[in-house]
Amino acid sequence: MRRARETEAAASLPTRHGDLEIHVFRLGDETEVVALVHGEIAGDEPVLVRLHSECLTGEALGSLRCDCGEQLESGLEQVGRADRGVLLYLRHEGRGIGLFDKIRAYALQDGGLDTVDANVALGLPIDGRDYTAAAAVLRRLGVRRARVMTNNPTKLQALADHGIEVVERVPIEAMPNRVNGSYLRTKARRMGHLLDSEPSMSSAPARNGHHARPAVTVHYAQTIDGRIAARTGDARWVSGESSMQLAHELRASHDAVMVGIGTVLADDPHLTVRLVEGRSPIRVIVDSTLRLPIAANVLADRTARTIIVTTPSATQERARAIRSAGGEILRAHADDSGAVEMKDLLRRLRGIGIGSLLIEGGRGIITSALRDHVVDRLTVCIAPKVIGEGVAAVGDLHIDYLRQALTFSSARFVTCGEDLIFYGEPKWEDLPQTA
């Protein structure tokens, strides 16, 4: 006697996001829907739900053209943390047009069309997904009420139309990268996706509101053991090519880039934008005693202005020599150690029209900015290298207990070539204030 065809298979699925259950449903038209479940989801209590569309290129191949891979990771992470959660993995490649046609659409996008116009040019639907099967699976799992992780209002309406009560929309946004910004803007502008306009890693922070100082990004590259330079001071080529391009994108998006004199003496950088399109920022060198060599690249290269911030104790003779070489001198207050006082420096930069500042190092400047709570965004490139003894990225922040450690909102880890990029906005309100 022939057995009746089974329509559901289920098993435990331990993952790095938690211990989940995997269910695979076969529906009448041979459609297969995967459900990854955490907790008891049947009943009247709202369940965290993610309807996720398959994307081979973004999830398996690491494509930067979309945000699908990051959204899958985020969805699984949130489901794994929830008391009741389910992620449905739906065979909706290319918003329902399939892999072959998605690649055809990519080719048109390479020629300048956006994701909407490319589908239209091929005679394909802009979004051909159907959520009937997804709603049917949720009902079979006993889900009646849902907190839906999505930026797409169409999903909310589709579930409601199929009898699932939507009690909340939970945003699920990925960090834009250097490639997919236009794609994300198109989804918001032309497809109605509810994006919060989160900036990309390479953008400047929004103005900080009080206008007393520039909006500040700290960016540096370090090894996985937290070193920004070897014990000899050598800091060249810590990160890979993709991370170097990100550094230049950051420079192009800020009004000014700042380093300490130690960085100039060790590396003799140009601090200009060369690897991407964009304007080179004003260069700011913090040099309390005016040790800057007259032959330094920041003076010899006239691509951008160079401002040397020093203290009242620096000699007039040395200041005149630097001015003659093309530099501008800006004197700021000195702190108790004789170094340039960070908060006064920032006030003066804001006073000459600098609205956004990128701090690239070195250790002393990074530490001062963090210790004085003047950093709006931290972007750290973590390179897969270990050097042991060397220069630590950050010095003493006067934090004595782990419970006082600096934490971050909007914290993300994003791959960038062979490196890993950390991005976050410091939560200064959780730290004890310094005098």
**CATH overall fold name of the largest domain:** Dihydrofolate Reductase, subunit A
Q: Give the total of domains.
A: 2
Largest sheet: 9 strands, mixed
Unreliable runs? none
Beta-strand fraction estimate: 25-35%
Oligomeric state of this protein: single chain
Spatial separation of the terminal alpha carbons = 84 Å
The overall pLDDT, averaged over residues, is: 91
The number of distinct β-strands equals: 18
Percent helix range: 25-40%
**Any idea what the shape is?**
elongated
Supply the number of helical segments. 13
Reading off the top of the CATH hierarchy, the class of the largest domain is best stated as Alpha Beta
Query: What integer value in Å does the Rg equal?
Result: 26 Å
Structure commentary:
The chain is of the alpha/beta class and 435 residues long. It has two domains: 8-92 and 129-191, Rossmann fold, CATH 3.40.50.10990; 215-430, 3-Layer(aba) Sandwich (Dihydrofolate Reductase, subunit A). Helices cover 27% and strands 26% of the residues. It has helices at residues 56-59, 68-81, 99-110, 115-121, 132-140, 153-161, 181-191, 241-253, 261-267, 297-300, 316-324, 342-351, 363-371, and strands spanning 8-15, 18-26, 32-38, 47-53, 85-90, 145-149, 165-170, 215-223, 227-230, 256-260, 282-286, 306-310, 328-331, 356-361, 377-383, 390-392, 408-416, 419-426. Strands 13-12-11-10-14-8-15-18-17 form a nine-stranded mixed beta sheet, sandwiched between helices. A seven-stranded mixed beta sheet has the order 1-2-3-5-4-6-7, sandwiched between helices. Strands 9-16 form a two-stranded antiparallel sheet. Strand 6 (145-149), helix 6 and strand 7 (165-170) form a beta-alpha-beta unit. Helix 3 (99-110) crosses helix 4. The N and C termini lie far apart (84 Å).
